[in-house]
Automatic annotation (TrEMBL):
Keywords: ATP synthesis, CF(0), Hydrogen ion transport, Ion transport, Membrane, Mitochondrion, Transmembrane, Transmembrane helix, Transport. InterPro entries: ATP_synth_F0_asu, ATP_synth_F0_asu_AS, ATP_synth_F0_asu_bact/mt, F0_ATP_A_sf. It comes from Drepana pallida. This is ATP synthase subunit a. The gene is ATP6. Pfam families: ATP-synt_A. Mitochondrial membrane ATP synthase (F(1)F(0) ATP synthase or Complex V) produces ATP from ADP in the presence of a proton gradient across the membrane which is generated by electron transport complexes of the respiratory chain. F-type ATPases consist of two structural domains, F(1) - containing the extramembraneous catalytic core and F(0) - containing the membrane proton channel, linked together by a central stalk and a peripheral stalk. During catalysis, ATP synthesis in the catalytic domain of F(1) is coupled via a rotary mechanism of the central stalk subunits to proton translocation.
Length: 225
């Protein structure tokens, strides 16, 4: 039962032994036709308001480290993850963000870039950041060890947070839908209503998780300067 349950996350689209599942990560571009960027419309204005809000918030988090275009990478990260989270809610579309292959491919390069930039350009700041102000001398070695471990596991925590949240909702919806064949008509109607509520909640999770990943990445970037 468990192997069948988790098989919904298995890559299964192969043509000539080449996996085309991760190509679904690019499907978001198909929902934004060229006219979307040229002709202002209601959807464009709403999306533009969201991007402006994110730009202002990321700019505030970066503080003195902000320069023109520095928020673009985090806004792009938010958009990319959100599109892929939403695509996973559609039937027969591979949920790429439910795999550590994609989530680690996002978090690990970002973390490595932040760490390399910080240790090369601001080594003294990186050392002082390991020991909070006012730490007793006897606790300093332990604080260095704790801060080092927390920095090392950051990319894994970002990846696992995104993957686990995507998997949890999909598993719950799969479990509920698999029991519908043995229910009466009234229970099936209730099950459909529950599925609709879960779909709404999963849509909220898709937005929240992309926002959380973008915010945490911005905070990690501000710490190395």
């Amino acid at each position: 039962m468990m192997s069948n349950l988790f098989s919904i996350f298995d890559p299964s689209t192969n043509i000539m032994n080449i996996s085309f599942n991760l190509i679904s990560t690019l499907l978001g571009m198909l929902f934004l036709p060229y006219s979307f960027w040229l002709i202002p419309n209601r959807h464009y204005l709403i999306w533009n308001i969201i991007l402006n809000k994110l730009h202002n918030e990321f700019k505030t988090l970066l503080k003195n480290n902000y320069f023109n275009g520095s928020t673009f990478i985090f806004i792009s990260l938010f958009s990319f993850i959100m599109f892929n989270n939403f695509l996973g809610l559609f039937p027969y579309i591979f949920t790429s963000t439910s795999h550590l292959t994609l989530s680690l491919s996002i978090s690990l390069p970002l973390w490595l870039a932040f760490m390399l930039y910080g240790w090369i350009n601001n080594m003294q700041h990186m050392f002082t950041h390991m020991i909070p102000q006012g730490t007793p001398n006897i606790l300093m070695p332990f604080m260095v060890l704790i801060e080092t471990i927390s920095n090392i596991i950051r990319p894994m925590t970002l990846a696992v947070r995104l993957t686990a949240n995507m998997i949890a909702g999909h598993l719950l919806m799969t479990l509920l839908s698999s029991t519908g064949t043995s229910m009466s008509n009234y229970l099936i109607i209730m099950l459909i209503l529950i599925q609709i509520i879960l779909l709404i909640l999963e849509s909220a999770v898709a937005i929240i998780q992309s926002y959380v990943i973008a915010i945490l990445s911005t905070l990690y970037s501000s710490e190395v300067n």
